[in-house]
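Field reference: "sequence" (input) and "structure" (output). Example, Phosphonate ABC transporter, permease protein PhnE:
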Amino acid sequence: MSQEALKPPAKTKSVLTGLLVLLLLWGSAVKTEANWTELATGMPEMWKLLKEMFPPDWGYLDKIWVPLGETIQMAVIGTTFGAIFAVPVSLFAASNVTRSPWLYHPARFILNLIRTIPDLLFAAVFVAIFGIGPVAGVLALSFFSFGLISKLLYESIEAIDPGPLEAMTAVGANKLQWIHFGVVPQVLATFTAYFLYTFEVNVRAAAVLGLVGAGGIGLYLDSTLGLFRYQQTNTIIIATLAVVLLIDYVSTKAREKLL
């Protein structure tokens, strides 16, 4: 082996990369006016807030079960609607199913546009249109789910085994038969896994949509924070965490069975 091959790699690249990262961090801190002084000043207030949140007001649990259930229902409906509409759009966006770039490029553009808008902004817009309540939350979660599942699903469709599709084309199958017998069986399990994953995300998202008036437990969260009832706020956080952990466990087990 030559001496050139045994030579350790030059450190110049690592040093320059480190300097670039530090420069980006410094520039970001300057632009956002983030500094250690403000952090040190705010720490006592943070500790004071945490002390005011304990012990949780367990008597408040009786009042939040109904809105917590409403939050889960919003997530169920929003995820279902989003997943239903994601299926046809994903087929349009998959280049191995829709050969024409005049179809799959616009479909992907729409999906990119929808994913650009955060769920809270969707909720604020729908609250302005439909008023305060769970309808705005369901619509916001539907659009969010549609964008997320469509993106994941069309990428899965593009990665399927082309063998069965070529065989079906050779025997003269039409497009619907091609999709039904060639595409769907290969992506059905992953689609279900994406649905469950999106449902988990939506339960968490639905808990904060109420901050902009979109119904669910978020309305109570906003109310207790506004009234400085931090012990009740803590009760809401603990109850929501328990529900999210339960759903996460069940969903993970279900995905493990599917994949």
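Residues 175-209 form the longest helix (35 residues).
The CA atoms of residues 221 and 236 lie 7 Å apart.
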